[in-house]
User: Which sequence fits this backbone?
């Protein structure tokens, strides 16, 4: 468990326009030893996140904001190749926000109303994942034969590096969000099996409410751009009409 001393240099950006909730988040994060920065407007928040002088360890981002909304903000960050972990706050009555946020590049989500202790655990989990990635990259830079090499999956001249959150193809390396990596791991561990949309919602993204599954289809379209030679005619990530998807390593 991290101590306040361990966390004192870490900066958490809180983007939330509900004043009472923002104050509660800031108070509790500061009590845990984090530094904080608060924005309540979407446009101002994006400007800060893109140009902050200090390194931001994680972002707590409300989905509904004046100005740009949370989905637009996280999408703009990823397009600018800013991969700071993002925990998105969503309205419980709008589960579609969850998939919109994950599709845009958020790393995790929490539905309102939530317990502050759960939010703190989620933040610590994202920070641990980031630290593991950093430590692994440092270790493998020192020695190419390191025994700490992370789990990888190889297919069609591509390598998914789950711990580094990246997919290496012949001509490019694509950064993955935590949720993208989790879905690819789930699919590759079930090669040849049909995975339903409901299973993806519940087992990978922890969404247990009625949700418009078109958001999943849009998410899959993006993954195909990463892993297929011809995304319009997929060979690896196949649609099973009316059910879900199936991954084939060697079609």
Assistant:
């Amino acid at each position: 468990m991290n101590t306040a001393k361990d966390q004192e240099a870490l900066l958490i950006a809180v983007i939330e326009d509900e004043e009472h909730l923002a104050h509660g988040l800031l108070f509790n994060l500061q009590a845990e030893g984090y530094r904080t920065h608060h924005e309540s407007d979407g446009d101002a928040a994006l400007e800060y996140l893109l140009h902050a002088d200090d390194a931001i360890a994680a972002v707590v981002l409300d989905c509904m904001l004046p100005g740009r909304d949370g989905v637009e903000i996280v999408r703009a960050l990823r397009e600018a190749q800013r991969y700071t972990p993002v925990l998105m706050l969503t309205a419980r009555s709008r589960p579609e926000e969850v998939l919109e946020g994950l599709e845009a590049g958020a790393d995790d989500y929490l539905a309102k109303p939530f317990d502050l202790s759960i939010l703190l655990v989620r933040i610590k989990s994202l920070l641990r994942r980031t630290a593991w990635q950093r430590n692994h990259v440092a270790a493998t830079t020192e020695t190419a034969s390191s025994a700490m090499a992370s789990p990888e999956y190889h297919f069609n001249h591509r390598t998914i590096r789950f711990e580094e959150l990246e997919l290496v193809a012949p001509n490019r390396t694509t950064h993955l969000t935590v949720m993208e990596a989790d879905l690819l791991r789930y699919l590759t561990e079930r090669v040849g099996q049909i995975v339903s949309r409901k299973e993806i919602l519940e087992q990978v993204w922890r969404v247990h409410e009625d949700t418009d599954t078109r958001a999943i289809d849009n998410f899959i379209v993006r993954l195909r751009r990463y892993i297929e030679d011809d995304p319009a005619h997929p060979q690896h990530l196949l649609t099973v009409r009316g059910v879900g998807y199936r991954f084939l390593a060697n079609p």
User: Anything to note?
Assistant: Residues 1-7, 136-150 have pLDDT under 50 and may be disordered.
